Structure formats: structure tokens, C-alpha cells
Amino acid sequence: MNWYKVLENASEIAENQVMEATAGGRTIALSKVNGVICALGGECSHEGGPLGKGDIENGHLVCPWHGWEFEPCTGRDVYNPARGVESFTVEVRGDGVYVEV
Fold it and tell me: In this structure, which of 54, 59, 86, 91 has its CB flanked by the most CB atoms within 10 Å?
């Protein structure tokens, strides 16, 4: 596992925002919920929808293709915890935001 800088500053992502980033050649879905920046694998476990283009609704990251909902920091499927997407550790440092991939 390696650390990759995904944002220059934590202020680049607003509360309840979702955005795509690249870390270690992988597409990552970054989100910010309750002041915490989270990182998930960029593809929905249902049909590969782009999670980084989704929305935060009721505290969940919602896939833009079919509405599947995930916990933004754990990747667990809200309605079936046995399913989900990969989650990554995030660190906010003095020189940026990093994701361990």
C-alpha cells in the first residue's frame, strides 16, 4: 500500500460533495460527510457506475446510475451490508489530502 496525494487542500471538497480523483492509477470516489473526507473505489458494485459522479443523500453516497447507496467511509451497501465497495484510508496533512491505496 502507498500514499497518494489527491487534493492540495482539504477545502477543495465541500461538505456533502462527491468528486473523482486518481490514486495509484485507480479512480477513487472522494466525499465529505460531517466534516470527514472519505475515499471509496470509483465503481459501483452493482454495474460499475461512476461513484465519483454520485451524490450524498441522507449521509449516503448514491450511485448516479441506479441509486445504490453506500456508507461513504466504509463502502458498505446501506441495504445489504454483505455487499459494498472497497474503502481507503484518508489522511489530511499539512500539504494536502492523501489516500492509501
Answer: 54
**Could you tell me if 7 and 30 are in contact, meaning their C-beta atoms sit under 8 angstroms apart?**
yes
Residue 97 placed within a domain: no
The answer to the question of residue 48 being in a domain is yes
Q: How many domains does the chain have?
A: 1
Q: How buried is 53 (Cβ within 10 angstroms: 0-12 exposed, 13-18 middle, 19+ buried)?
A: middle
pTM higher than the cut 0.85: yes
3-state helix, strand, coil in the chain (%, to 5): 5, 50, 45
What is the SS3 assignment for 2? coil
What CATH number is given to the structural domain containing 18? 2.102.10.10
Give 37-62 pLDDT, tens digit per residue: 999 999 999 999 999 999 999 999 99
Q: Which residue, 38, 3, 79, is CA-closest to 51?
A: 38
Beta bridge partners of 84: 76
Which contiguous run of DSSP H or E holds residue 5?
strand 3-7
Q: What is the pLDDT of residue 60?
A: 97
